[in-house]
Amino acid sequence: MRDGDVVVIEGFTHLICFAAGHEIIRQRRRDLTLCRLTPDLIYDQMIAAGCAKKLVFSWAGNPGVGSLHAFRRAVEGGTLEIEEYSHFGMVARFAAGAARLPFWTLRDYAGTDLPKANPRIKSVKCPYTGEELATVPALNPDVTIVHAQRADAQGNTQIWGLLGVQKEAAFASDRVIVVVEELVDERVIRSDPNRTLIPAAIVDAVVVEPWGAHPSYAQGYYDRDNDFYVGWEAISKDRAGLAHYLDEFVYGVGARAEYMEKQPRLIERLKAGEQMSAGVNYGF
Amino acid sequence: MRDGDVVVIEGFTHLICFAAGHEIIRQRRRDLTLCRLTPDLIYDQMIAAGCAKKLVFSWAGNPGVGSLHAFRRAVEGGTLEIEEYSHFGMVARFAAGAARLPFWTLRDYAGTDLPKANPRIKSVKCPYTGEELATVPALNPDVTIVHAQRADAQGNTQIWGLLGVQKEAAFASDRVIVVVEELVDERVIRSDPNRTLIPAAIVDAVVVEPWGAHPSYAQGYYDRDNDFYVGWEAISKDRAGLAHYLDEFVYGVGARAEYMEKQPRLIERLKAGEQMSAGVNYGF
Amino acid sequence: MTTVAARELADGEVVFVGIGLPNLACNLARRTHAPNLVLIYESGAVGATPSRLPVSIGDPALVTGSLMVCGMADVFQLFLQNGRIEVGFLGGAQVDRYGNINTTVIGDYAKPKVRLPGSGGAAEIALHAQRILIVSKLSPRAFPERVDFVTSSGQRVTRVITDKGVLERDAASGELVLAGLYPGVASTDVAVGWKLRARSQLARLEPPSKLELQLLRDVLDPQRLYLKS
Amino acid sequence: MTTVAARELADGEVVFVGIGLPNLACNLARRTHAPNLVLIYESGAVGATPSRLPVSIGDPALVTGSLMVCGMADVFQLFLQNGRIEVGFLGGAQVDRYGNINTTVIGDYAKPKVRLPGSGGAAEIALHAQRILIVSKLSPRAFPERVDFVTSSGQRVTRVITDKGVLERDAASGELVLAGLYPGVASTDVAVGWKLRARSQLARLEPPSKLELQLLRDVLDPQRLYLKS
Fold this sequence. Notes:
The complex is a heterotetramer, with two copies of chain A and two copies of chain C.
Chain A: E1 6-9, H1 18-26, E2 32-35, H2 40-48, E3 52-57, E4 61-62, E5 66-67, H3 69-76, E6 81-84, H4 87-98, E7 103-106, H5 114-117, E8 122-125, E9 132-137, E10 143-151, E11 157-158, H6 166-172, E12 175-183, H7 186-190, E13 196-198, E14 205-208, H8 226-237, H9 239-251, H10 256-261, H11 266-270
Parallel strand pairs in A: 1-2, 1-10, 2-3, 3-6, 10-12, 12-14
Antiparallel strand pairs in A: 4-5, 7-9, 8-9, 10-11, 11-13
Chain C: H1 2-7, E1 14-17, H2 21-31, E2 38-41, E3 45-46, E4 68-69, H3 72-81, E5 87-90, E6 94-95, E7 101-102, E8 105-107, E9 112-115, H4 122-128, E10 131-135, E11 157-161, E12 165-169, E13 176-181, E14 198-204, H5 210-220
Parallel strand pairs in C: 1-2, 1-5, 5-10, 10-11, 13-14
Antiparallel strand pairs in C: 3-4, 6-7, 8-9, 11-12, 12-13
Helix pairs in contact in C: 2-5
């Protein structure tokens, strides 16, 4: 990760890699272009910490709670550049990036002000029907960080539950870092190859960081920390509160293990129950 | 299914619904436009039986063996209309159909004669870079038949092993028929929702037909009948041999159960061994 | 509002569900007159039967025991753009005379007075769901003549369910008109930012039944996450 | 041919594998000098370690125990068009002076003398794999000056492995030239449909080693499905 990089930490509600975001804050990276459908608390923290020059996004709120206050202060104060799409537009940008096409076609934006706000939303004429369709440009990040439930040492990565755009973001990216709850033997991966979302061939590094997605969640490992999301409203509402949070829980800890030690009741409160899938037979 | 319909029976080597093809032959459907990446023996049989007016495809051979002789006789004799793409072109046609876009964009065909042979392969100019990219038109079949390992009574369908373009073909189609090896309780589907490829919301009918994909295969249920594929070379080489095969194994049987009864050793020869997947936890 | 929204849904329909009241309304409908409603969440969960009230659209309880979970490219391309969604729920900070919704900014886009979250999936839901239901509290400020920014188009809006009554989109003029009132509310109580016309016959919206109230309070939202009254 | 093809592969490379000799060659390379070769099949199987020699590109043995199985849209968009494939193997009924391949028709397209299977994935493999290896038996008929139909372009062809010797694509002229011979084969034995030029220094292709032969005959193809001699 370098200053000025285009960085993606994806995950739709599920598997948002807060551990990586905190490490980027601690390394005091600057001038990053941060891209995500939903900036969520992680980018709110990175914006507050001064890592971001620009934000590319489609929905910037605290789901079910309210605002991302660092984001709002930066935009309303004119200190953060933004490039804004709808969810489908962002998904399409990642799809184009993953397929290494320069653009993606979608039926969208008729009658809205989004193309006026973002001139990168253009259109193309169908060579068969003549109709005009919306386009968005490919998004090819320098680095994408994907949090996942499990991977083998080579980086063959399996995810279940909500998949977001993790696969597309990884294939669109120049460098890919996978952060997992659990490192497993290659045999576990090979026992269920349809579950593999990201192959080792595109992965540059594998990091094992249990609970690395807290306060978001990892299906089968731990629940979403809804209390923390609700609490963020008060923490982030003023600069001082947010700075205090970063001091204590980001700058103040060396690594994820310390972050967990500071919150000893998290595990008991959020650890997942068991609801195992029915197996399938891969024999022939 | 009606005479003149655009019909897709998909499945790449895996899960090719011969049971449905045979039923269409028995119902003496005519003037069908048959679409598949690999026509395989199933469309060779349907062409021989006179069901097809036109074939839309990308690779028409008997894999590892040789020719599809009924197909060759029809094309070399000028009695079958063809529309030909590459595999990627066919995949892209289904992708466009599934997304209900009129076309799909791909980087392909530069320096080849395929666009000359098929004027429906066109191009579009990227609104960002100005470069010319290839396009193919959407494929939206009237009927798609998907063979699958299991579904519930509503049609929520799970497939593992090779996935081909089954999902795209189903979503692209006006009507969808799912044929399964096994009808399972909704609870089995709900125990592993990431395994569901086709939702009940797009399925018009569910048919239970064990061994319905023979001589192709169903991962976890039975192996591919490679001997049959090798034997097809001799059966199909002349019209009489092929007609004899259809008389005995298609017209001569009322339904799939009779087809299986005629070949009592199939099950013992091809029944799958057991290699179960590791389960995953969906708890929270 | 929740019960009126629930009654808008017909059994067997495929609904794109938002979080909050729309989710409550859908689950109420499933337990009363529409047991075969198919709920699809933007996050990729299809046919969810959550064992607790989901706090976010990506709640793990929407995944466990659902019928299908797919990536978001499939949600937007194969379900939404494909035309498989019959009903979409939207809300917004501003709704205008023609049903256009603003969830982007109050004030100028380049220099916003208040920066709102933005579109999310709202732009495309509004274009691709076969009909759009808006759920929003009614006030002149929230219902201006024109929104500051059109995040999603009003073309497919059929009804707007508010805390005072229900508005409909008039097919001829394209504008929202008053169509029904809750018991005890008069037409004159319904003030918006333009001269609101009313249907000649106003529907009387039935209050929640005993069963509906019991389901909402005891089963669906016992912790009163969304039901404030 | 198989051993020569195997030796073309470097350890760790990502290879798009066809059925038949290319598959044998890849599995031989994996068991000798390139244990970390990543094999990707058009059918969607990634990192397969088949327990039997696959008869078709979609053999169930390619799935069981593989590292990943994905749909074909992902194979073509995310792997191939994305540029993740380093080596692609192709074969064909005709290969011409510039490495163009024909697997579509002999004769005129509209009135074919012989109708061949068509492109399959060959058109796009030839454009997107970083380098293309052709494996084909050599004869003047199979190597005409110009193919009847260009199914896949010769632009990225680097080497053509035949039963007589190896041809390379000359960077300057773009045409195939003779680069190496098997022991006991003379340049004059190599006849194609055009005046074939030869490198000034011809490589002497080493015959299969004892280990290679043993692996091929006893482990990889004991039933002689592909090894005829």
